Structures are given as structure tokens and as C-alpha cells.
Amino acid sequence: MSDAQLISRALATFKAKKHKRRKVGHSVAVRKRAVRMLERGKPWREVGARFKVSTGVLTRWRRQYGKTPTHHTKVHGVAVKLKAIERMRSGVPLAKVAKEVGCGLRTLRAWLAGDRLSGPDEQYFSTAYKRAAVGALVKGAPMMQLAAKLEISDVTLRSWRRQYAKRAHNCPSCKCFVMKAR
User: Fold this and answer.
1) Which domain holds residue 109?
2) What is the number of helices (H) and of strands (E) in the chain?
3) Distances (CA, A) of 39 to 42, 84, 154
4) What total of structural domains would you count in the chain?
5) Which of 56, 117, 161, 171 is the most buried (most CB within 10 A)?
6) In a domain, 119, yes or no
7) Cα–Cα distance between 8 and 58 in angstroms, integer?
8) pLDDT digits (tens, 9 = 90+) for 86-119
9) Residue 117: which of 77, 74, 149 has the closest Cα?
């Protein structure tokens, strides 16, 4: 064997050994214990530090072993939220209400604080409503003022404009829009 062949073989074995990583595996029981801690409301960082894993790994474990997977979020109506808030204010423990409603403790706390009673997931607008908003834009209403009046973001309003209006001219710098035909 030539020297070049010996060197290339040595490099190949060195690279193979270098890239082999020993996986630190956690048993299914340990993973489920971590998920239970998350579902009981323990902070993610605290659970991650205890089991020496990242929050990304915890998210994956929660999807695999959790009761309510993070990739499948349940949309609750305002009536359900108000009933849950009433039960929490009457002294029922948060964990019990969370189990009844089927959501996390963090979500319940947000509902109790009043931030998410009609959050972005709850706002469904009819096509007629969207067209009316875009029509007001086309007629010259200022974007930011209209968005504030409708209590939506300007980004949402722009996306509606993209969906229901078109440029009056082919010029990209022109700000003239007309409604698209239905």
C-alpha cells in the first residue's frame, strides 16, 4: 500500500470516529414524567434544567407523550372562556379548570388577566366585512387609523387589500387601488 492510500484510510477512520456521537437517551418513563411536570405548570426552563434537555426537546416530548399536543391547539369560544374565568374566580383550582376546559395553565392565566378573550385565533371575519374594510381603504381612508378603528393589525388589513383589491395602474410606486371583481 502506498503512503497516500495509508493517509487517506487513516483520515477516513479518524473522521468516522470523530462524527460518532454518544446519544444520551432518556427512557419513556422519564420523558412522560417531564411532560407531566410541564402539564402541571412547571416552567419549561426548570424542567429542561432538571432533565438536562433543551426546550425544543421538551416540545417534542410533549407532542409525543402529552395529553394535549402543542401542534393541535383547540379553539375555545368566548362563552367557554367566560365560564372558565367565573369558575377560577369562585375558587376552583386552576389545574382542575384547565383539565375541564382542555387547555394549559398559562392559557387560563392569560384569560384571567383578560388578554385573550378575543385573541387572533378567535377573530373570524366574513368576506363582506373584509371587502367593506378594503373598500374604505380604496376610497382613501388612512391604513393605520382604519386598522385601529377596526381593532385589527395593519398587517391584516394589508393582506386583505392584497386579497380583495388590485393596483389601478401597473406602476408599483402608485398607491391607487381598485376592488377586484368577485
Assistant:
1) 78-113
2) 10, 2
3) 7, 18, 35
4) 3
5) 161
6) no
7) 41
8) 888 888 888 888 888 888 888 888 777 764 444 4
9) 77
